[in-house]
Amino acid sequence: MNHGPSRWSIPRLLQDVSVDGFREQAFTPSIPTLLSQKSFTELSALKKWFMPYDRNDKYQALNYSYLDRFEHATVPLEFTRLPAATDVPETFDDTFVRSEAPLAVFLRWSKQATVDTFDRLYLAQASISALPKDLIADLPTPEYVSKAGKGDVYDTNLWIGVSPTYTPLHRDPNPNLFVQLAGTKVVRLLSPESGSQVFAKVQAALGRDGSSKYRGEDMMKGKEKKLLESLIWTDTDKSGESGACGLEARLERGEGIFIPKGWWHSIKGVGEGITGS
To answer: Which pLDDT does position 216 carry in this prediction?
Structure first.
């Protein structure tokens, strides 16, 4: 977990990893908080779904011998394209298609995909409750979720892809416990006030008056996607053209972050190999 550029500071790390410690230091005061690998040892998916991609265990690959058993399960997939070196940004066709398909489609694609693969598939926002029961059992609800508050779970979703992956700036209607299962992701967060200012700036540039509560495919393609990515991920000087100052966390396998309700966040999968959250 490292500091980001000058206008992005690092969230604090939870020292007391007990449920009471999480409740008192993160959940109740609604403070973005980093969580170490000690917090998620009960997640058997960390070892059953993924395997070392290199000798140093820095990168991970999917454990196909285990996951191929579930190849007929239906999952949501997002299809996108990476720009080629010869593409002109203003005219690049940033295709975005979301559909359901057998898990086998994603597994076959991921076996040959690299960071440079032009056509991309992302298993994104797959409801864990809709997965086969054996896979559900590999992802038990962490005690931070079941015991820190009322124990109600609004939704639990899964993301698996091959880096680079990208999720534009958005905010969730409920607190979010984000856990990195494999690979590396960088999470940038803005407070409710700062995030709303960035969103309003983008909407004004687009000549719109859209609602930040309801986000659709507009944020995944076209000019809105480009503006959001530029404002959040293009680093200039300390004051930045965007005026956005927030938090940045680099999450490795087994680490997590608590994102309070209303906090805006954008996420990138970086490095090599499989990334899962």
So the answer is: 60
42: phi then psi, degrees, rounded to nearest 5? -80, -5
Cis preceding linkage at 164, omega within 30: yes
3-state SS of 18-49 is: CHHHHHHHHHCCCCCEEECHHHHCCCCHHHHC
Rounded to two decimals, what is the model's pTM? 0.89
Between CA 77 and CA 105 the distance in angstroms is 9
C-alpha–C-alpha distance, residues 200 and 272, integer Å: 34
The residues pairing with 126 across neighbouring beta strands, listed in sequence order, are 158
What's the rounded mean pLDDT across residues 67-92?
78
In the numeric block, the tokens 């992701």 are attached to 185
Amino acid identity, position 122: Y
| 123: nearest Cα among 62, 53, 51 | 62
Give the pair of three-digit tokens for residue 22. 């999480």
32: closest CA among 199, 276, 275, 264? Answer: 264
